[in-house]
Please model this.
Amino acid sequence: MALFLVNVLDGFVTGLLLFMLCSGLTLIFSMMGVLNFAHASFYMLGAYFAYQISLVTGFWIGLLVAPLIVGLIGALIERYGLRRVHKYGHVPELIFTFGLALLIEETIQFFWGKSQLPFSEPAALDFAAFAIAGNAFPAYKVFMIAVAMGIFLTLLYILTKTRIGMTIQAALSYPETVQNLGHNVPLVFMCVFGVGTAMAGLAGVIAGPVLGVFPGMALQLGSIVFVTIVIGGLGSLWGALVASLIIGWLQTFATAYDVTAEQVLTAIGFTKPEMIWDHPLQDLWTLTLPQLGPILPYLLMVIVLVLRPQGLMGNRES
Amino acid sequence: MNKFNLMMATALAAGLVAGAAAAQEKVRIAFIDPLSGPFATTGTQGLAIYRHSVKELVNEPGALLDGNAEFEMVPFDNKISAKESLIQLQVAMDQGIRVIAQGASSGVANALTEAVAKHNRRNPDDPVIFLNHSAVDPALTNDKCQFWHFRFDANADIKMDALTDDIAANPDIKKVYVIGQDYSFGKAVAAAAQRFLQEKRPDIEIVGNELHPIGKVKDFTPYARKIVGSGADAVITGNWGGDMVGLGKAVMGAGFDKPIYTYYGATSGITAAFGEEGDGIVKLVGAGQVNPAPTLEAQEFIEAFYVSFPDLDFGQPQMANVAPMLAAAINEVGNATDIKAIAYALEGMEYDSIVTGKTLMRESDHQTIQTVTVQGQTPEAAFDYDNSGRGMVAETVVELASNDSATTCEMKRP
Amino acid sequence: MTIASKTPLTAGSTRLISLSNAMPWAFAALFLLCLPFVFQSNSALTIMNQMAITIVFALSYNMLLGQGGMLSFGHAVYMGLGGFFAMHVMNMVEDGLWLPLPFLPIVGGLFGMVFAFLIGSFSTRRAGTVFAMISLGVGELIAACSVIIVVFFGGEEGISGDRTMGPPVFGYEFLTQQEVYYLTVVWLLLAALLMYLFSRTPIGRIANAVRDNEERAEFLGYSQRNVRWISFCASGFFAGVAGSLFAINFEILTEENLNLATSGSILLITFIGGAGFFVGPIIGAIVFTLLQTVLGLHTELWALYLGILFVSCVMFFPSGFAGLIAMHRRPLALGKMKLLIKPYLKVAIPAITSVLSLAAVLEILFHKRHGYGGDHEMHLYGIAFDSGGYQAVAFATIIAAISLILVSRVLPEIREAWDNANHAEDRA
Amino acid sequence: MSAPAIELKNLEKSFGLARIIQGVNLQIAKGERHAVIGPNGAGKSTLFNLITGRFAPTSGGVFLHGEDVTGLKPFEINRRGLSRSFQITNIFPNMTVFENIRCGLLWTMGYRYSFWHMIGRQQDVTEKAEEILAQINLSSRRNELAGTLAYAEQRALEIGITIAGGADIILLDEPCAGMSHSETDLIVDLIRKVTEDKTLLIVEHDMGVIFDLADQISVLVYGEVIESDTPDVVRASAKVKEAYLGASLEA
Model:
C-alpha cells in the first residue's frame, strides 16, 4: 500500500511534466494547425540553457531566464521559418518542424558535446521532503508538482477568464473563429508559438535535473508527447491533461508491478513448455509487465485510434 | 575570390595525394567505433587511449620490428550502427588495412566478428584480424568464438566473478537486487550474478532480478522504488550510458545508500552526473586499475595521457594493451603482413602489462586473462573522471581473474 | 507543396512504355552495368549497393509521400520487417529450403505487403496529421517490440545469415561483392520500373487525385481509404524488397533497421530529392549516401550539415533537387539556357566559397571546443593551422562575409536573367 | 411508372441546436430538370450534401431509383449513378486538365482500382476524355495544370469532371456563381448539352438560368420546401413571393 502511494505520486509527477509539454503543443496545434514535431527539442533547449545559465548564476535565475530565451527563439523560428513554409501547406510544415528537431539536436551537440551534463537540483531543494516506508520523496519533486500545477492553473485562468483566452478556447473547437482575433493573426500566432515553446522550455528546466540533460533527451520524450495528444484528442486541452496523467500512471505502475506473462498464462490454464528456450513462444512466456511498460502508450494509441479516431476527448478529426 | 578558390582546390588535391603516399612503413589499425552521435564520447575516449598507447608504448620506444615500422590508428565512425560498421570494415579492408579494432557495443562486435569470419572463409589468402577491446558479451568467446577474434577486456562472466568476490567478502550484504538492460549482455550479467552468488554465498537472497528495455526508460523512479522497497543491501547492474545515469540517480534519489555494483558506472559524464551522492556508493568492476596506478610506468603513462587529453578520461585501461601485444605478435612473426601467423602468435601470448598486471591471451577461446578490480567512487582519486574531482579507486584486486574458467568455445583453426 | 505529375502523356501509344520513355531506362541500365568497371573496390561496391537499396526504399516511400500524399514517420518498419523475414528465409535456405537467392526479395516484399495490409487497415482511414501520428506510433511500437520478441528480431544483436548457402544460379554463389552488386542492380531496375509503371496505372493516377483532393475523389466513386490502402500495400511491398536486398548485402538486420532514425532519414532523403518527381527520391538517395559515407569520413559535423541542408530545403526549395532541375525545363524548351549560364557561373565561385568558408567557421569553432585534448593543430582543405586563437575563425568569417556580399550582388542579375529566360518573347 | 430518380422522405438535419433542414419531402422524376431556389441560408447546399452523402442526415431518408442510400458514403452513392459539382471549385489542381477528366471516367469505365492496366494505353478512356474535353471547350488547355486555369475554365472543368463518369443523376451546385453574362450563357448551353436525357438537380441564384433550364422548381426557405411545381406556377405563387420578400426584409 505504501509503495502504491509512492507510485501514485511519482506517476502524477510524470504525468504533469508530460502535460506541460502537451499543453503547449496542443495550443500551437489548435491555433495554427501545426503539429510541432520539434516541441520536445525546445524542451531540450530549455534544459541546456538553464544548465549554462546556472553555471553562472545558480539554478533559480536559470529557471526564469531559460524559458524566456526558448520562447524568444520559438517566436523567431515561427516568424522567419514556419511562416515561410506555411504557404506550402500542412505536410511541409510538419516536415519543417521535423527538420528543425534534427537541426536543434545537432546544434546542441555542436555547442555542448555529446555527454550527459551534470545539471543537478538546487541545493535548497536537495533533501527528502518525506519518506513512505523508507522510500524518500525528494523535495524537488514537490517543487515540480507545484510548478506544473501553477502553470496549469495560470493557463486555466487565462483561457477561461480573459478575452484572448476565450477566443483561443473558441479556436480550439472551431478553427474558423481564429479570424475573430482581428487582423493581427500573424502576431497572435507568433506569440502562441512563443508561449507554447517557452512552456516546453520551462518543462525542460525543471525536468533536466531529474531526467538528465543529454542530446537524446528530446528524442526520448518526443514521440511520447505526440502519442499523448493523439490519445487525448488533437486540439483538446482537457484531453491532453487526461491522457498525460493516464500515461504517467500507466508507465509508473507498469514498471512497479512485476506481473509476468507466465503468471497470467498459468492462471488462465496454460502450462509452461518445459524446454522454454527452444520454444517458438518463449518470448511470450518470459514477458513481464515492466518490459511492456514503454510500449504501452503506443499500444494504447493504436487501440484508441482504431476505436475512436478523434481521440478520447477530441471533437474534430485531423 | 577566384584565386582563393583555386588555392583551396589545389590544397585539397595535394592533401589527398599526401594522405595516400604517406602510408608506407606504417602498420595501420582500423579503429571502428562511434565517433559521432550519442555514444561518441565512448569512441573518442577509446581512440585517445589507443593513440596514446601506440605513441608511448610502441612508436616512440621503437618497439615494432626494431623501430622499422610504426602503428597508425585510422579512425572509422560506425555511428554505433551494425550496418555502418560493416561498410566501414569494407572501406578499411579496401584501404589495405587488415587489423580491425572495435569495442563499443556487443551488438556491433557480433556483426563484425561474423563479417570477419565470413570474409576470411571466402578469402582464405587475405584474412583480417579482429581485436575486440571492450565488447564483453561472453558469447563472443564461447558459442560464437572464432579464430580471428581476440578479446582484450575481461568478459561479463569474469567481471562478475571478481564482483561477487567483493560481495561475498561483505557480511552486511544479505539481499541483492539485479537489474539490467533487456538484451544479450544484460541477460548475461543477470545469469552470471545468479550463478556466482549461489556458488559463493548461498545465503544471499536475490530479491529482484529484472530487465528493463534498453535506452527506452525515461524515468527510473519506479524501478528505484521497487529496489528500495525490496530492502536490498546491494544492487548489481550492467547498465551503461544514459541507462546507467538514470538508474543511478533515481536509486540514490530514492534514498538508497548502499553499494551499487556496476560495469560501466564511471567516466563519459557518469561520474560527474553522480557527483558527491555517488561517493562510497558506486562501485565499478573492470580490467586493470587507474587509482592507485599499479606501477610507476603506469603512473607516468596515465599522467602523460591527461596532459595530452585533458578533457578525456583514461577510462578503460585494458585498451592500452592491444597495441603492445599486437606489436609483440608482429615482432615474433617478423613481418606485419602475414595475418594468419600474427593471429597464431597472439594465441597464448603472455604479457606483462603496466596497467593490468600479468596478462594472458588464452588459447582456447581468445579471451584475455588479466587483473580485474572492483573500484569505488571517491573524491580522493589521483586521476579523476569527467574533471569532476572524483574518480575510481581499486578496492578489491583479483590477479589473473578467472584463469581456470570454462569455455564452450570449440576453436576451428585454419 | 508542388507535387505534380508533370510527365508528358503517352496517350495512344500501344507499347508498355514508349520509345522516348524507354531511353532513360536503357541508359540507366547500361550505366549501372558499367559502373563496376570504374569503381572496383569492394567498399565502392558496398556503397553503391547501399545507394541502390536506399533508392528502392526511397521510391517506395515516395509512393506514399509524393504520389499518395501520406506523410509517414514509420516507413522503416516495412523495410525492416521484410528484411527480417527474408533473413529468416535465408537461414531456412541454409537448412535445406530450396530458394535461389535472386528470388528472396519477392518473399521479403510479400511479407512487407502483408504487414502494410494489416497496419493500413486502420492507418489509411485519414491522411495528413492523423496518418503521420499513427505511422509514428506504429513505428515506435514495432521498434520497441524488436528487443522483446527475440525469436523474430534477435534482440539487440539482430538476426544474421549467410547468403551463399542457397542453390547456385548459373554457377554464381554470390561470394563476391560484385556478384551481389549485379543482383542488387537488377532488382533496383526491376523495382524502379514497376513503381514507375504503377504510377501510370488507374490506381496510381487516382492516388494522385486523392492526394490533391480526397473529397472530390470520393464523389467520383473512389473510396479515399481504399485508394490509400492499396498504395500503402504496394509501397509496403517495395519497402520489403529493399529490406531483402539489405539482408542480402549486409547479411544482418538489427533494431536500427526499424527505428525512427531510419524512418526519419528516408523522409529527409525523399524530400531533399524532391517528392513531386519520380526521379526525386533517386537523387535524394544518391546525395544522402554520398553525404553520409564520404562527408562522414572527413568531418564529425556531417549530420549538422545534413540538418542545415534539410531545413533550408524545406524553406527555400520545397520541391527538392529534382524541382530545381525541373525549373529549367522551360528555359531549355525556349532555348534560353544560355541566358542563365553566365550569371550562374558568376555566382558559382562566391557561392561555393561562402559555403566552404561557413563550413570552415563551424569546423574551426568545433575543433576549438571539442578537439583532441588541447591539440589545436587543425587540417582543413589541406591547410594546417592553429585553431586555438581567434585568427583562423576571424579569417574564415571574413571570407564568408565577403563571398556572401558578392553572392547578394549577383542575385538581382540572376533574377532578371531568370525572368528573361522564362519568357517566350524577349523583354525590351 | 418507375420509382423517382431522387426521393427525399422527411429529411432533417441539425447542427447542434440549429435545424438547417426540417422535414423535406421531394420527388424528382427520371429525366426531369429540377431546380432548387431559395434565399441565402435556406439550406440549399446542405440539402445537396445530404443527398450526396457528404453529411449524414439527422433523420429521414434519401432514395435513388427507389433504393435507400441514406447514410452511405459519397463514393457509394456515386457508384449508384449520382454525380455532383461544388459551389466552390473542387478540382485536382496539381493534375492536368486531361487527367482531371480522366479521373472522372475511371471508375465507371470499369478500371476501378486496377494496377494491371497501363492508363496511357487505354484507348477507350483517352478517346472518351478527349470527347468530354471537346464538349467543355477545353481541348486546347489539355496539358495545363488545372490549378492554373482561369476561373470560368475551372468551372467548366468542374462540370466536365462531374458528368465524365456518365452518371444519370447530376447535381450542380451554383454552376454559374461568379460568372459574367456571356460566360453564364456558355455554361447554360453546356449544361443543357451534357445533361441530355439525364436527371438534373440544380441550385442556382441566377433566376434567368433557372427559368431557362428547369422543368420543375422547388423553393426552399429555412429548411422547408414551401412550393414545388412548374416554373410558371412558382413564378405566380404568392407564397414564394412572400417568402423571398420576407427573407430579404429580415436580412
Remarks:
- Chain D has two domains: 1-81+169-178+197-251, 90-166.
- Strands of chain D lie at 6-15, 18-28, 33-37, 59-64, 67-68, 82-84, 169-173, 199-203, 216-221, 224-229.
- Chain D has nine helices and ten strands.
- The radius of gyration of chain D is 18 Å.
